[in-house]
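Protocol step 4 of 6: structure prediction from sequence.
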Amino acid sequence: MRTGIQFRSFGVAEGLANLAIRRIYQDRAGFVWVSTENGIFRYDGDRFEAFTTEQGIPLNSGVAFGDAPDGSLLAGGSIGLYRLSGNHFEKLPVDFNTIAWAQGIQSDGKGHTYLGTDAGLVELYSNLGKSNMACGGSLSRREHPVPVRSGFWWTGTQCGTAADSNSAG
């Protein structure tokens, strides 16, 4: 049966040096970011480019991607939290150690970015009138929060699964 859907595979020939893919994310500029077992790559529609310590981000085994409140790209995982500035990542000073790479960075599209961290759910916001960002306090001690478009945050806690509509923005 023909479905009309075509597939294209990417690999070493296109610059993707690791085929164990953890996360895929398309940023606002249209680049596709791929997190692999040994680093991250950016796809420009033609080739993949590895991002390493030369671009300011340590080698890692998986990161989450998401939008910062100012629209810049965030990458986070066991390496902490980084923001892309130009073609270089800068480490952001934060009060937590890790971000859950599976669901760790979500923006609500209203200027709020939420991070699933080892310290719980943290809101990242832009300081009005300043060129930096700050982290708000942990909203609660949660494990792997997952925001959904309906306005609820589903999260696994020590007591089970919970939904919270108050922290959705």
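Step 5 (inspection) to follow. The chain has a mean pLDDT of 79.
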